Amino acid sequence: MADLLASSPGSGRRDGIYPESMFRYQPQSDSFLCPAGQVMKPRRLHSVRLTWEYVTKRGVCLNCRLREFCTRSRTGRTMRRHRDQKLLDRARRQANTNQAKLDRKRRQHLIERSFADASNLHGFKRARWRGLIKQSIQDLLIATVQNLRKLIGAIQNVPQSAWKHLIRTVSRLYTVPSTPLMPHWPHQPVFSVGPNLLCFVSSHCQTQLFGQHADKTDYKAR
């Protein structure tokens, strides 16, 4: 994930004032040192954001010569530090490495394109049936169709023996007996790998598995 704080410095209310990087954290005393040399100590922990608020003593910011460059608040500058800031700093350093930047570029054309393909061609934008187990089956079917398309495209120019090996593999899957996905879940749809495997390459494969009215919890796949 990209470092959003570094990608938008000085935006909004922070525009034109000192950035947070000019406030030095002192781990020994758990305090911040502001550009004017004043110490900012923790005041309270936000119960939802889990961030500590650091402020100077009352009246220090009001009489500071750097006030116009530091804050627009009437009460003075406030610094915030997350309770697990060490982990955030570690993630930020990792996000700014060359390898992380290459991974994000690779994701743009590899992962996001796969999501777009699933959404535009295979109904990934909308759940077709109620229930978490049925949604999981829909997602697995979409991924299976995508993988089969990639596999067929990759072996188009290979020898005929590769096709024979693929046919033998598919034939073994075709003979797998039907088993419930979650044995401890009552009234769940039974997913048959064998009889429905050929439906994977069809645009209506999910309807073939559950039918047109598969929103009932006690409906079983064919």
Features:
7 helices; 3 domains; 39% helix; alpha+beta; 5-stranded antiparallel β-sheet; single chain; elongated; 222 residues
Q: In words, what does this structure look like?
A:
The structure is a single chain. This protein has helices at 4-7, 67-70, 85-95, 98-121, 132-154, 160-174, 205-210, and strands at residues 24-26, 31-33, 39-45, 51-55, 79-82, 179-180, 190-191. It is α+β, with helices and mostly antiparallel strands and 222 residues long. The strands form 2 sheets. The chain has a 5-stranded antiparallel sheet, with no helix packed on it.
Topology record:
Blueprint: H1 4-7, E1 24-26, E2 31-33, E3 39-45, E4 51-55, H2 67-70, E5 79-82, H3 85-95, H4 98-121, H5 132-154, H6 160-174, E6 179-180, E7 190-191, H7 205-210
Antiparallel strand pairs: 1-2, 2-3, 3-4, 4-5, 6-7
Précis, in short:
This protein has 222 residues and is of the alpha+beta class.
Q: Characterize the largest beta sheet: strand count, sense, and whether it forms a barrel.
A: 5 strands, antiparallel
* Overall body shape: elongated
Beta-strand proportion: 5-15%
Q: Kindly, what is the distance between the CA atoms of the first and last residues, rounded to a whole number of angstroms?
A: 42 Å
Number of strands: 7
Per DSSP, the total helix count is 7
Q: What structural category characterises the helix and strand content?
A: alpha+beta
Instruction: Pick out the low-confidence regions.
Output: 176-222
Fraction of residues in H or I helices: 25-40%
Number of domains: 3
What strand order characterises the main sheet?
1-2-3-4-5
- Helix and strand sequence: HEEEEHEHHHHEEH
Radius of gyration: 29 Å
Mean pLDDT: 75
